[in-house]
Amino acid sequence: MPTTASLPPGLQQWAARHLSGLDKATVTDVSWPRGDSRIWQVTTPSTVAFVKMYPSPAKYGRELQGCEHAARALAADEAPQVISANEELRSVILTALPGQVVRGLALQQAEEEQVHQQAGQLLRRWHDAPVSISAASRTDIMGTIADQADEAAVCLDRVGDQLSPAERDLVREVSTDLARLAQNLPLAYRHGDYSPRNWLWWQAAGHHSIIDFEESAPGIAVEDLVWLCGAAWPDRPDLRLAFLTGYGRDLTPPEERALLLLTVRLGVSYLSTGLAKNDPALVDRGHTVVGRMARAAG
């Protein structure tokens, strides 16, 4: 729940140089409860902005790079713009966008389909915006995919007894097939956390925008669909259809296969971590995702 708060002293002093009327502002902590970045909404007499502080230089850098990519790919009202950035504080001040976070919104089916169609359109423009991916970056991307395949093998050893035979087979296929499949998949600059918690919907104007670029980086384009594949689409094929209609193309068979395996990897990682940390919610999420993917594959 958002709570009334105040900026830490260092942030307060810096933000005061860039936000007029900060001494009269209302500050609300809007950080995600499970996240490790801190976010405050700052409402002054003349403007609304967000101050965001990152736990690492890497996340700070990715946010800035993501904002730069958004400026190339999207309209000005479809992504936040940087008012100021402070490397020492690992913090940025971002413009506010109209609308509400989609996650948790009560939407009628037709409107929800509209949201997902626009989300697909927006992601297609994000993916299509030119970005230079060097040979070294490609090697890093493939290394990351190989790491995910290796993680699936480790998770299978740890939690295989918690899975059905069909689920075990699918996790094993992640470890053996994913890295090979990735070699020929389209690359793009990924958002990195493309899900309704990072979508904004301005209901009155029918307007969609996106936020939160601290996981953005070059990678396999279809990785941006993993959350949707595991959480939104299994029970709502209408949302998948709407999204891909907006995206402007169907996925190729290799992309479909890779998306399935990437989603299985995420699910078995949830399960393994949940069991290790005695977190029933995470265990349940892992079982749900892997089970859904096994049914889809079957």
Question: What's the SSE blueprint?
Answer:
Blueprint: E1 3-4, H1 9-16, E2 26-29, E3 38-43, E4 48-53, H2 57-73, E5 82-86, E6 91-95, E7 100-101, H3 109-128, H4 135-159, H5 165-182, E8 187-190, E9 199-202, E10 207-210, E11 217-220, H6 226-232, H7 237-247, H8 253-276, H9 280-297
Antiparallel strand pairs: 1-2, 2-3, 3-4, 4-6, 5-6, 7-9, 8-11, 9-10
Helix pairs in contact: 3-7, 4-5, 4-8, 5-8, 5-9, 6-8, 8-9
The averaged pLDDT comes out at: 95
CATH-wise, what's the superfamily of the largest domain? Aminoglycoside phosphotransferase (APH), C-terminal lobe
Order of helices and strands: EHEEEHEEEHHHEEEEHHHH
What is the end-to-end distance? 40 Å
CATH class of the largest domain: Alpha Beta
How many whole angstroms does the radius of gyration measure?
A: 20 Å
DSSP summary, beta strand count: 11
Helix percent reads 40-55%
Report the portion of residues in β strands: 15-25%
* Weakly predicted, low-confidence segments: none
Q: How many DSSP H or I helices? A: 9
Describe this protein with a few key phrases.
Aminoglycoside 3'-phosphotransferase, Chain: A, domain 2, 15% strand, 3-stranded antiparallel β-sheet, Phosphorylase Kinase, domain 1, alpha+beta, 298 residues, 6-stranded antiparallel β-sheet
